[in-house]
Q: What sequence folds into this?
C-alpha cells in the first residue's frame, strides 16, 4: 500500500490540475464579453482622395478609367460612391468617350456606373462621325459594353443637330442612338447632307 501511495497522490494531483485548468478556461470565457457579430450598415469602410481606378481587357490593355476627388466604399452594397466623378472609355475600334458628373456610384463589380448631377457624356469626333454630347441629371454607363442610357430627360447634341427627349440609349460600338420620346428635334441640313454621303451614326426614335 505504501508503495502505491505516491502513484495515487500523483493521479489525484494530475486530476485536480486538469479540473482546475478546465474551470479556469470556462470562467475566463464567460467573464470576458464577446462582441456580437458586426452589423453591416451603409457606412464606409475605406476611402480615398484624388483616386484613379483602371480596368483592362483580357489582353491587359486599359479600356476604362474612373477618377474623382473623393471615393468611399460601402460593404453592404459593395459599391463605390464618388464625388466629382470623371470617366474615360477607350475601346479598340470605338471613338474615345469621356463622362463627368457631380456624383457617381459604381457597383456590380465595376460593370455599372450611375452618374448623377450635371451628368455629361462626350464622344469625340473622328474621321467618320461628328462629336456627340449627351446631358442629363442621371446617366448610366456600362463600361464593358460601351453603352450609356437614361430614362430621364436628356439633351443630345450631334454635330449641329439637337434633340430633347425622355429616355435614350447610345451604343458606342454600333454608333446607334435610340431616343424613346422626343419633344424637340432640330436636324441641321449640313448634318443631313453629310449623313447621306457618309452613313455612320444611326438615330432611331421609339414611341
A:
Amino acid at each position: 500500500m505504501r508503495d502505491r501511495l505516491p502513484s495515487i497522490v500523483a493521479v489525484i494531483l494530475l486530476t485536480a490540475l486538469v479540473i482546475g485548468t478546465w474551470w479556469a478556461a470556462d470562467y475566463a470565457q464567460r467573464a470576458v464579453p464577446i462582441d456580437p457579430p458586426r452589423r453591416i450598415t451603409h457606412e464606409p469602410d475605406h476611402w480615398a482622395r484624388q483616386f484613379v481606378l483602371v480596368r483592362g481587357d483580357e489582353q491587359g490593355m486599359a479600356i476604362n478609367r474612373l477618377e474623382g476627388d473623393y471615393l468611399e466604399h460601402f460593404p453592404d452594397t459593395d459599391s463605390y460612391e464618388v464625388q466629382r466623378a470623371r470617366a474615360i472609355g477607350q475601346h479598340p475600334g470605338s471613338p474615345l468617350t469621356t463622362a463627368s458628373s457631380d456624383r457617381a456610384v459604381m457597383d456590380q463589380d465595376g460593370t455599372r456606373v450611375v452618374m448623377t448631377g450635371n451628368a455629361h457624356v462626350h464622344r469625340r469626333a473622328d474621321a467618320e462621325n461628328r462629336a456627340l454630347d449627351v446631358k442629363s441629371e442621371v446617366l448610366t454607363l456600362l463600361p464593358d459594353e460601351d453603352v450609356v442610357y437614361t430614362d430621364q430627360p436628356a439633351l443630345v447634341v450631334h454635330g449641329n443637330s439637337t434633340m430633347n427627349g425622355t429616355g435614350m440609349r447610345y451604343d458606342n460600338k454600333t454608333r446607334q442612338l435610340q431616343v424613346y420620346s422626343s419633344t424637340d428635334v432640330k436636324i441641321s441640313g449640313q448634318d443631313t447632307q453629310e449623313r447621306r454621303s457618309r452613313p455612320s451614326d444611326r438615330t432611331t426614335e421609339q414611341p
